[in-house]
Amino acid sequence: MTRMGVARGRGSVGRPLDSSPASVAAAAADSAPDSKAALSGPPFARAEAVLDRVFRGNAVVQVVVLYAITRLLTTVMLALVAPSQLPADMTDHQAVDYVGFTRLWDGQWYERVATGGYPNTVPRDPAGIAMQNTWAFYPLFPFLARAVMEVTGLSFAAAASTLALVIGFGAAVAMAALLRPRIGRAGALLVVGLYAVFPSSPALQVAYTESLAMLLLCGYLLALSRERWLVAAGLALLIGVTRPIALPLGVVTLVAVWLRWRRRAAEPMSPGETGAALTSLVGCGVAGLLWPGIAWVATGQASAYFDTMGAWSMTGHVQILEPWFTIPRYYLGDWGPRLFAVTLVLLLVGMAGPWARRLGPELRVWPVIYAAYVIAVQTPGTSTARYLLPMFPYLAVLLGLAGERGRARGIPTTVRALVLGAAFLWLQWKWVSVVWLFTPPIDFAP
Hints:
The chain is mainly alpha-helical. It has one domain (3-443). The protein has a two-stranded antiparallel sheet with strand order 1-2. It has helices at residues 21-31, 45-55, 59-81, 98-101, 106-116, 140-152, 156-196, 210-225, 229-239, 246-262, 271-299, 304-310, 323-332, 335-352, 360-377, 384-387, 393-398, 413-436, and strands spanning 3-4, 442-443. Helix 6 crosses helix 7 (156-196), helix 7 crosses helix 8 (210-225) and helix 10 (246-262) packs antiparallel against helix 15.
């Protein structure tokens, strides 16, 4: 389970009694309101009135200010821990400041992509097993960072971390726009705030793809919920060169297209709309195969991408599902698989029950399908915390904002938000000072 200094840990009001992925979609379809219409009766009218007075009703400014505060907190944490980083291969054997601290781990691989591109062949050891190389890292973020470097003259670390930070603001605004019609302005701010202080949220401002992936993901789900099919198809293609999440998005798209098809009697679909909806489905399929296909064409090896991904596995190949049983059992004995099974049930029930009603079909199906995808293709480990960021709809459920009332039962939403926020900040400090900080010569990758 250890990694060399340059390695990275990769795997990185319905029918609640039936909590399969299909029932999540059915529950969302039958009980959720029209995703294009806001639910009446905002549950935090007083809080929203205060926000209106302070920010003159500008919802975007509210999100930007909130996100800026959270990023300031994270910047302080990174700056405080940076002097503790020992010189190592991934620091070029030099001490680092805040900027240098942001290019550790995957950051050095993205720098190689930005400055040197991709190899013409997959490097292999004498036994023919693929070695770690840049084909595992998608190109859009490092190429954008290269563009910033060319324009500004900044180093990769400065350009990439600044780029990630700026894009993160856009992702937060898009997330709030996605949530606002469902859980209100105050509710959207609470969810965005918790997402922005999540333990692994420092990944949103270092030389990683997280912020760009979140921007495209939220934009895609927003386009899908508004039935902007062609916009969704275009965003899917960008996702296809950013992160490997296009295939689970295809399942969400299939649900959205099916729900639109069910309404065709009351709201007829023109041939153009039908074609656009099908295009969005095709876009996800193409996006899911885009980067492996590019690697195939560039290297002449059909398995180039998948062989490269296997280089980060202890076995030398991508494992499906098995690590989620063997690794928990290694650490926890027989309780490991049991805990994993309980986690699966909670993930399914969390989105299938009436407590998620206000989220609408897209936001109820997405986190379940995405979780299933991560479990299928990734290995549990220290990178798993980063993979949780796209599952932000669960935060609305934890806060009690996604039920029919829009308020938590039992423990008030404000108390939940304060407790979760404090816990997330403490765990974020641990993530920065323990997980992100590299301890030579080998360490677990974040």
